[in-house]
Amino acid sequence: MKIVAAIKVVPNDEAISVAGDRTLDYSKAAQQISIYDLNAIEAAAQLAAANGGSAVAISASGSKAGDAKMKKGILSRGLDELFMIADDAMVTADSLTTAKALAKLVQDNAADYDVIIAGDGSADVYAGAVSVQLAAVLGVPVVNNVTKIEVNGSVATVERTLDTEVQTLEVPLPAVLAVSPEIAEPRIAGMKDILAAGKKPATITDAAAAGAETAGVVAVEEIKAPVPAPRKCEIYGADDVAKFAEALAAAIR
Fold it and tell me: Could you tell me the pTM of the whole model?
């Protein structure tokens, strides 16, 4: 069994600073695996281990994603191999262009896959559209909001957790599954894992070398931090519980 984890490398949002005009400064933001994809990686590694298979990663990210440190960071989490398009054209690529690039990586390097696991959205855009479009490009079923996966032969039984119910579905394989964060707790890679990751195979190319299209882009007009809401500076004492409750109720209506 071959499991594929579709991931994205994004700037560390905790290191993005806000300038006086509310524009965002990314200069000190190092690259990291999208936080939601950490769960997808762990789910892929666990599923492969449970079924005696292998787990590989695919990614279409910016050029900074292709450095040796990032490669080790990805492969130290239970994956066997990495196939990545590291190209700045992918930073502003729309979801369909990204899906097509990922599909090209799958078709050229992991065509015998059984399951592709993706996070429920990327930490930078969080549109949640790539997994659905990847399945459409590959012509396979897709299920999102997945919180549990079991494979029996050519069928996966998944639990899909929604706001008011938990659905149990049978999905014919191959398929794309977009997982929720509660699918699996990401492991913390130890020094042994990181050293071993340096010896694992990784194919990192730009979009042209991979044969991926980059025509579809999102035109970003402006990105600014929201205007801070003014504080009311109202102070309530021990005898103002009813007044506080009334003000709180009015604020959240």
Answer: 0.85
128: helix, strand or coil: coil
Burial letters 80-111, b for 16+ CB under 10 A, else e: bbbbbbbbebbbebbbbbbbbbbbbbbeebbe
Tokens of 198: 């340096």
Neighbours of 211 (CB within 10 A): 13
38: exposed, middle or buried (C-beta count within 10 Å: 0-12, 13-18, 19+)?
A: buried
**Is 237 or 102 the better-scoring residue by pLDDT?**
102
Half-sphere exposure of 37 (CA within 13 A, CB side): 29
Q: In 52-205, where does DSSP find H-type helix?
A: 68-75, 95-109, 130-138, 191-197
Number of H helices, E strands in the chain: 7, 13
d(CA 175, CA 153): 13
Average pLDDT over residues 191-211: 95
